[in-house]
């Protein structure tokens, strides 16, 4: 009958002991130190890359004929001969198309007869005036008629020659926009002739690059390597020719043109795709330091008129490092003050503090 009171006393003693232990732990923060988790900020990291690698750029480009001409007849008529087709190679002086000459030859014969008559009449009046049987006025009229007849004859001869469309240079027929026996209006282009002895390499560059081009660029002053998609194991040299000063209305990029001799080992036609590798140090103003590296534009920030980046050290702590900007290339910036391989914080730099622990953001699979 003494068991119940004894159990109650034991229970109370154990409860008091546990409460005392908990209160002691709460009054001693050092007891929780090992269980506390230090705050580590997830960040996007980027690697500072060597300047030499960044200055080498590859642009997709397109082949175009260096010289091309849209050919048209200078007179109207009906087409009678069309011996060429697209893709055909022609020589300077070849007949590419010809109109029906019947009406033009008839006109030529008429103008020839009128000229012959005017010439005879002038000779007759010139003879009579020597004998004082004709006036000076008659002689002047005959001379004017002869000159007019000669001019009309010359036009008729030219028009006969204009019934033939002649190749003005060696090249390849790029396009034929008419069928034989159709009627043709004067000055309407019907054939495109392309000179493929020299070809143009045309590609587009963003505004940020074009504004940094050297002002003294001239033809052949800068060269680059060109590779054809169908001949990727061979490269060719193309040199600067010109660039546009007005951007494309849609892409807001600028067209740059390099030129090269047409390769003879394989067929090259306008419209083919190529890649052109260009060393930007050859075309951009200023020479970047050999120690400059490339970092994302978003990694650079200003503070008190000084430019900085957050570099991450081996302990994954953020260090504020002063850098000097050299040049902007697209979304990258060349800076000095870092070494190739340095890790920098590439986003959210306004929220980082010196010495702060960080960790690299890793994408989950499928993201």
UniProtKB/TrEMBL annotation:
It is found in: Cell envelope. GO terms for molecular function: efflux transmembrane transporter activity. Residues 1-25 form the signal peptide. Residues 292-349 form the Multidrug resistance protein MdtA-like C-terminal permuted SH3 domain. Its main location: other. It holds the Pfam family RND-MFP_C. Residues 74-187 form the Multidrug resistance protein MdtA-like barrel-sandwich hybrid domain. GO terms for cellular component: efflux pump complex. The keyword Transport applies. Keywords: Signal, Transport. The keyword Transport applies. PANTHER family: EFFLUX RND TRANSPORTER PERIPLASMIC ADAPTOR SUBUNIT (PTHR30469:SF20), MULTIDRUG RESISTANCE PROTEIN MDTA (PTHR30469). Belongs to the membrane fusion protein (MFP) (TC 8.A.1) family. This is RND family efflux transporter, MFP subunit.
């Amino acid at each position: 009958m003494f068991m119940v009171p004894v159990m109650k006393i034991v229970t109370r003693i154990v409860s008091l002991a546990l409460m005392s232990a908990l209160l002691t732990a709460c009054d001693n923060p050092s007891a929780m130190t090992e269980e506390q988790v230090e705050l580590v900020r997830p960040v996007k990291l980027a690697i500072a890359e060597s300047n030499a690698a960044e200055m080498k750029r590859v642009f997709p480009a397109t082949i175009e004929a260096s010289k091309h001409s849209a050919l048209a007849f200078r007179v109207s008529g009906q087409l009678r001969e069309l011996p060429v087709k697209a893709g055909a190679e022609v020589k300077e002086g070849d007949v590419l198309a010809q109109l029906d000459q019947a009406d033009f030859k008839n006109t030529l014969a008429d103008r020839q007869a009128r000229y012959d008559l005017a010439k005879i009449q002038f000779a007759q009046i010139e003879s009579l005036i020597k004998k004082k049987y004709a006036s000076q006025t008659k002689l002047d009229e005959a001379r004017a008629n002869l000159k007019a007849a000669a001019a009309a004859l010359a036009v008729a001869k030219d028009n006969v020659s204009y019934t033939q469309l002649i190749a003005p240079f060696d090249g390849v027929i790029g396009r034929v926009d008419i069928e034989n026996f159709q009627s043709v209006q004067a000055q309407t282009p019907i054939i495109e002739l392309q000179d493929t002895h020299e070809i143009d390499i045309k590609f587009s560059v963003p505004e940020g690059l074009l504004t940094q081009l050297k002002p003294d660029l001239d033809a052949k002053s800068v060269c680059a390597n060109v590779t054809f998609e169908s001949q990727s194991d061979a490269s060719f040299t193309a040199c600067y020719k010109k660039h546009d000063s007005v951007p494309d209305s849609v892409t807001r990029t600028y067209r740059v043109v390099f030129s090269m001799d047409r390769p003879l080992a394989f067929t090259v036609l306008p419209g083919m795709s190529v890649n052109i590798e260009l060393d930007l140090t050859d075309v951009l103003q200023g020479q970047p330091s050999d120690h400059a590296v490339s970092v994302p534009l978003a990694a650079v920030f200003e503070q008190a008129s000084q430019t900085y980046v957050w570099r991450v050290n081996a302990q994954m702590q953020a260090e504020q490092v002063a850098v000097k900007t050299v040049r902007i290339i697209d979304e990258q910036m060349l800076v000095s003050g870092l070494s190739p391989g340095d890790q920098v914080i590439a986003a959210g730099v306004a929220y980082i503090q010196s010495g702060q622990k960080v960790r690299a953001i890793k994408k989950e699979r499928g993201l």
